Predict the 3D structure of the following.
Amino acid sequence: MKKVLAAVCLLVVPHAYAAQEPEMVFSRSCTMCHNGQSPMVPKKGDQVAWKPRLEQGTDVLVKHVTEGFKAMPPRGLCMDCSEEDYKAVIAWMSK
C-alpha cells in the first residue's frame, strides 16, 4: 500500500521546471563572464573547470548565484530567474 501511495504522490505532485530556456538566460545574463574572457570564471562547456564546482552540489551553486559569490554579482544579473532556472543554466553551462 505504501508503494502505491508513493507512486500516486509522484504523479500528483507537480515538479518544478525551469521557466526559461538555459541558452537564453546564458546569452542574456551569463555570457559576459562565462564566455572565457575571465580566467577566474568557469567557461561554458569547460568540464574540468566545472568539476570541482559541481562536486559542491547544486544547492551550493544556486546559493552562490543567488547571493553572489566572489566576483559574481547577486542573482548572476538574472533578476527574473527562479531557482529552477539557475539549476538548468548551471547544468547547461557545465556540459
User: Anything to note?
Assistant: The chain has one domain: 17-93.
